[in-house]
Every structure is written in structure tokens, then in C-alpha cells.
Amino acid sequence: MTSLVALGDGPLFGLPLPELWFALLFVMLGTFLFLDGFDFGAGAIFAALDDDTERETVLAAIGPFWDGNEVWLVVFGGALFASFPSVYADLFSRHYLLMFGILGALILRGLAPEMYEQRHDPAWQRWWGRSFVAGSVLAPFLLGAFAGNWLAGSARSFTLVGVVVGVAVTLLTVVSGAAFLRLKTGRRLPESVARYGIAAVGGYLLAVVATLALLALRLPNGPDALLRLPVVVPVVASVALAAGYVVALRRGANLVALGAAAGLTYALVSVVAVVMYPAVDPATGATVREAIVSTLPLNLMSIGAALLLPLITTYFVVLYSAFSGPISAGEAY
């Protein structure tokens, strides 16, 4: 009992826990956008492949990973609820249509490849193939729209900022997906896969520029909020990462290209976090320190996170180690 009282006296070790949890939320979101992002991107590229063997190869490449990668979205939602419950309630209630759309797209993306494999009938596989593509494209687009509306403090489900950020996130998943497929399949997919990734990274940079321009017009003190070192550095780094991605993909350094795609993802998420801070919900003006839970549950959550997050990370290390390397010829979903 005494130890619980002590935990309620102040933050653990005097750490700035509200800010650490705010940063941790965006690390979790970035991890989901990267890991599940290359699954989404593979689904988008699936639409451009006509050969049945090539489509089976795409499904086999993402098969061991996609359902595990979605854990990070659950972790993000749970952490947001636990650390900033009022923000969770306000944000999700304002955008409940987007939430239902995201869940529907994720369900469709998960169900479609399972159904696709059940029958080798052209009409059946055409229908479920299109469903797989739709879920793979809609999920990142709606997630991006949600993030854009959150950042801009909009109460509407669809805004211009949300649409542009949705397009940016969707293109970013194609960037990751192209690198991942080249890494996992070698030369068994056509060279056009690399070209899709290169085109997508160019479109992504244009979408980022458009997003920054819209935010400069919409946010209070927009230009001043954006022309800060913590914002400028990741934006400039994104240009360098995009160039590195193109060079790596053309030279067949696919792991380097995938690493560049990861850097682009975390750079985007960091820009969103920096522009938003110190607010955690710009629509209501709630700041990180105002919206955080009280000291005792915050300390207990921090102890729990310190124990659980290494376990989750270890699971993913084991998963990706077990299925490392290119997939075998003829391997199926």
C-alpha cells in the first residue's frame, strides 16, 4: 500500500512522462505505418499484376507478416486510450465514420486473400483480388485522412488536408511495398515493381509539399510553426532518403531501399508530432500535460509498458528472423 502511495507522489524517477507517452504514441503509429505499410503497398501493386503466378508470389511474400503487423495499430489505440482517455473519446467520436471505414478496409484486406485462395475460379479470384486491392488502398488512405484531420484540428471526417495526407500515406505504402517485394521475391516479379516504387516516392514528396502548404494556411501562425528546425530537418531528410531509395532500388540494394522507406515513414510521423505539440488534440486545444491521466495510473502504465514493449519487440524479431530471406519458388499464401 505504501508503495502505491509513493507511486502517486510524482512521476517515476522525475521523468517527463506526459511528453514521453506522447512521443511513444507516435513511435507506435510510425511502426504500424511502416510494417503494415509494406503489406498495404504490396496489395496496391497486386492490382498491376495480371499473371496468376505473380499474384500468388505477392500473397506468399506478405502472408507470414500482415496479421502480426496489425498488432501495432491495436497497441497504438490502447496506449492512446490509457494515456490520454479524453483525447481518445473526443477524437474517435468526432471521426467515427472514418474509424468504421478503417476497420472495414482492414477487414476486407484480411478476408480477401483468404477467400482468394479458396477457389481457383477466374470470376471468384477476380472479385476477391479487387477486394484485396480496395482494402489495401482504402486502409492507408483513411488512416492518413484521420491523421491529417487530427493534426489540423478538424471536426469533419473529410477535409482537403485529410485527403492530401491520405494520398501521401497511400503513396508511402507503395514505396515500402515495392522495396519489400523486391527484397522478398528477387527477380520473380517484373521490373515494373521497382518503377512503381520510384514513381510513388516522387508523388509522396509532392503530397508532403502540398500538405505543408495547406497547414501553413490553416494553422495559427502556420509559417512560423513549420519553419522550425525540428520540422525542417525531417523534411530535408525525407528528400535525401527519397533519393537514396531511388538509387538503392535501381541498384538492387533492396534492404537499403526498405530502410529508406522506414526512414521516410518515421520522418513523416515526427513532423506530425512536432507540429502538433504541445497540443495533443488541436481541435479542443488540450495539451499533453492537461490531457494526461493522473500520476498513479501514469506511473503504473509506464512500468507495464517497460515490461510489455520489449516482449512485443522480441516477438517481431523472432517472426522476421523465422521468415527472413526471399520466398521459395512455388511458395503459396
Descriptors:
single chain; 333 residues; mainly alpha; Formate dehydrogenase/DMSO reductase fold; two-stranded antiparallel ribbon; 2 strands
Q: How does the SSE layout of this entry go?
A:
Layout: H1 2-7, H2 17-46, H3 52-62, H4 66-69, H5 71-83, H6 85-94, H7 96-116, H8 122-152, H9 160-185, H10 192-218, H11 222-226, H12 229-251, H13 254-276, E1 279-281, E2 286-287, H14 288-291, H15 295-322
Helix pairs in contact: 2-3, 2-5, 2-8, 2-9, 2-13, 5-6, 7-8, 8-9, 9-10, 9-13, 10-12, 12-13
Protein name: Cytochrome d ubiquinol oxidase subunit II
InterPro entries: Cyt-d_oxidase_su2
Membrane topology: Multi-pass membrane protein
Spatially, the strands of the biggest sheet line up as 1-2
Q: Under the CATH scheme, which architecture would be assigned?
A: Up-down Bundle
**Average of the residue pLDDT scores:** 90
The helix/strand order is HHHHHHHHHHHHHEEHH
Structural class: mainly alpha
Distance between the termini: 52 Å
CATH-assigned fold name: Formate dehydrogenase/DMSO reductase fold
The outline comes out as globular
As for the number of domains, it is 1
GO molecular function, one term: oxidoreductase activity, acting on diphenols and related substances as donors, oxygen as acceptor
Membrane topology: Multi-pass membrane protein
Transmembrane segments: 20-49, 95-112, 132-152, 158-181, 193-217, 229-248, 255-280, 300-323
Keywords: Cell membrane, Membrane, Transmembrane, Transmembrane helix
